[in-house]
Amino acid sequence: MDKPFLYDQDFYGWTQQQAKALEQRLVMELDWQHLQEEALLDGFEAGIDLALRETNLPLRAFPEHCPYLFDNAMSTTGYAYADNFLCDTRQDWEG
């Protein structure tokens, strides 16, 4: 079954197919477009969920869509980076 078709018709089946392809390192079997969309969407939603739990801000205080381009948000230079960048969570994982 075609990967994009499977994504639209059987999301669970698509996730299982993608997990198997990742596990077996079958790069050509990966649905890169949908994997990227899911990763960005899930990451943004997880960030919103975390911010809601850790602040008293209402949901309406957060944008519906991420206002940053992925490459800019991940950049270690330029406008998206500073020593105290709001979204820098590296210290959360340091022992």
Automatic annotation (TrEMBL):
Gene3D superfamilies per the UniProt record, alphabetical: Uncharcterised protein PF01724
InterPro entries to which the protein is assigned, alphabetical: DUF29 (IPR002636)
Pfam families: DUF29
Protein name per UniProt: DUF29 family protein
